FadR family transcriptional regulator (Leucothrix pacifica), 237 residues
Amino acid sequence: MDLDFQISKREKLSDQLYGQLLEKIVSGELKEGYKLPSENEISRAFNVSRPVIREALLRLQADGLVYSRQGAGSFVKARPPESLIKFTSPSDISGLLRCFEARLPLEGAAAALAAQRATEEEVETIRKTLVAMEEAMEKGEIADKADFDFHMAIANATGNEFYVSILGTLHTAMRSGMRVALNITKAGSKQRMRKVQEEHRTIYDAISLGDVTAADLAMRYHIQSARTRLMNHQRDI
């Protein structure tokens, strides 16, 4: 395997290594079941320390792309869709996935609070953002703004300004992740698009009915499914 890694001082080394190993997995140069180069080989090729290599490998493991066998090394577990690296820089993907990781408990709790506290006006605002997203997707548009507006409307409906503030802080990373996921969805089947729309509508329905548990579960399911669509080329969900 070609170990001609390139480094840039402007980006975090572990993210660059993660991204370049990811590229080799996506391209098929490293196929499912293949063994990754050893830490010594990567260290020589990339000219980085062991801690940097281990951080990158741990992220690849956490993201379900590689697995480790004691005494044998690391092996490729799953291959993301080729379109993943078409829509964003490979070195950015680790950060996008960390954002999904942070969103999962945060937005699940926000949806639950919105189901408990949302006023009629706030529920109507959530509905309007949902309709805007659905209409944009039907037109073949990348509806990342409408998608973010939907999630922000739910944060507003919690009645807790800290949820709004946190989502505002995550705005850039969330929009980037949504844009990549929606681009992959657009390039996929109609069934995939309908699934994305159904997930959002299920969240809205639970909030509008005041079902706290269902809202939490629906939001968590949606975020986890979005992450899966991003990372697994075999899953048309």
Summary: The chain has ten helices and two strands. The first helix runs from residue 13 to 27. Residues 13 and 116 are 44 Å apart (CA to CA).
